[in-house]
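Batch manifest, entry 17 of 40.
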Amino acid sequence: MVRDPVIPPEGFEETLAWLNPDRDVAAEMYVQLRRNLSTLFAWKGVQDPEGLTDEVFDRVARKVRKVRATYEGDPRHYFRAVANNVLKEHFRKIKTQLPIEGVDNLKQPMTSTQDENQDRRNACLKLCLQELDSDKQELILAYYAKEKRAKIDHRNELAQRFAMPVGTLRVKVHRIRESLEHCIERCLKREVPKK
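Output type: structure tokens
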């Protein structure tokens, strides 16, 4: 799921107008819808529910002008349908994903008890991380360094350190992670030399 960075500037305004003609009511609906979708993604076990919620809203913003003209009914149903599609794509993609959280353990030699496929995935992850420039490598590793509540606080600190809003940080990390996933997929298709 490669994100298209081109979202029309008027997409946000049109999305609000589609939710409700009264801007204040639309803003409340927007916030509640984001909360509901994020909760849904978290309930489904998604590691980054806010990131997938961003993806849903990005997709709707790109298509709102075209969809709004012909869509009948509550627009929140459309958001939920897009969320279901994003969720399906996410779970399809997760089959080829390797969690970055345990990347520090990759520095240790592989044991003979590990599955050969996992060895290949780990080797590919290491190779792909090395292909990133140092800023991106530092950001992605730092982003996934903590767990639970500490993770949220740490990501807020990262956003401040890199002088960007948390939402922008999520988008940046999402793009880095996607490039890593594509790199790992390509790597897995060819033979990986064992070290």
